[in-house]
Amino acid sequence: MSQETIGKSKFVEYLPRMMTTKVLAILGLVLLASCGEGGSQQMEAQQATPPSDFGFVGRSSACFLQLPEQSRSIRVNCFHIDGMLHIHSNRWSKLPRWRGESWVKTVRSNPLVQIEIADKIFAMSATAIDDEERRIAILRERGYWYAWDGITVFSFSPIGEKEKSRRNPR
Asked: What one-character DSSP code corresponds to residue 31?
């Protein structure tokens, strides 16, 4: 076998590993780029008084959650149980972020938020459901067969006048 043939055969053996490495590197970069909080937008609807029953939301409805002191909102799925509005995180929300903090951590520390549903913006106060039995029951009602540990569930109630003045001091 000539020296040239040996060189070609080694290159042919090396080529699949080289291609696999490049493909994995590209997939890793794509995955890393997708780790931010996507689906953000400006809220453009009109402020409205929250209804006493959020039953119109159904089992799942797209809504936007505007965090305190941020001009943009993030897309989340709202749902109701017995007329009360709820939102839950994904199961990775407690993991460290490359940039910023999870919306879950932000809402836990400052629960006065705005939620846009069906072209209306509601000023709401979030309450994390930390009771494990209640959290599991809500997720089961939502249709989850398993209540992953990382999922945080929030229930929402209208902001009272006292909270509104704290949120927007004049």
From this structure: H
CA distance 66 to 37: 13
Distance CA 43, CA 41 (A): 6
Instruction: List C-alpha distances in Å: 89 to 6, 36, 46.
Output: 56, 14, 26
Question: Would strands 153-158 and 46-47 be described as parallel, antiparallel, or unpaired?
Answer: unpaired
Structural tokens at position 94? 């407690």
Overall fold of domain 40-167: Pnp Oxidase; Chain A (2.30.110)
Going from the C-alpha of 150 to that of each of 35, 43, 143, the distances in angstroms are 16, 28, 17
Give pLDDT tens digits for 65-80.
998 877 778 899 899 9
CA distances from 99 to 46, 47, 156 (A): 31, 30, 27
Residue 26 has which token pair? 């590209």
